[in-house]
Amino acid sequence: MSDPFNFHLKATDGAARCGEFVTPHGRVRTPAFMPVGTQATVKGLMPDDVRETGAEIVLGNTYHLMLRPGAERISALGGLHKFMNWPLPILTDSGGFQVMSLSELRKLDERGVTFRSHLDGAMVELTPERAIEIQALLGADICMQLDECLKLPASREEISRAMRLSLHWAERSKRAFEARAQGGFALFGIVQGGDDLGLRLASRRR
User: Fold this and answer.
1) Which residue blocks in the chain are alpha helix, DSSP H?
2) CA-to-CA distance for 191 and 40, rounded, in angstroms?
3) Could you give the 3-state DSSP secondary structure of residue 130?
4) pTM across the whole model
5) What are the angstrom distances between the C-alpha of 59 and each of 49, 72, 105, 146, 169?
6) pLDDT digits (tens, 9 = 90+) for 137-188
């Protein structure tokens, strides 16, 4: 994991662009097709079949892997790449989507999110710092900050509140990332602001 993470813009055509980023587990050409392997597997396909689609990167999910089989267990078994038999880059979602999709099973405050596990009812806390810790244990090439993914439609006031909270969590995620980061381990920032262009631009500037 000693190679640096970097991105190169290869070509542009109006607003369209193509590029390439390099991770310790290989390069990814953008725009990229990224299959979803939420629970460390792309359902219905073996890893070789996924590679035959042309995919150069897959996605795993912090929330689901935190619950089962557990980030510490995956780390002890050699990391997510070995666990799912995928030698190419992996991006991990921070669990922010579950803030929306499992809204009936969670409580949210400035500190983070407390979920009631959909598996066994156990209470589990996910903070920006813990989300980064889990993704580091998984060995993700690219991790994501914890954010509040808001269900739409929503009022501008509510969208603004969620955006401000996500920005606060982004700062904490960055600090946690910088305290842990090693070569090649990259942090993905998230633009929030729902469907409000002004708020999205404000989020992007931060």
Assistant:
1) 47-52, 62-67, 71-76, 80-83, 96-101, 128-138, 156-180, 197-205
2) 25
3) helix
4) 0.93
5) 16, 19, 23, 15, 21
6) 999 999 999 999 999 999 999 999 999 999 999 999 999 999 986 655 899 9
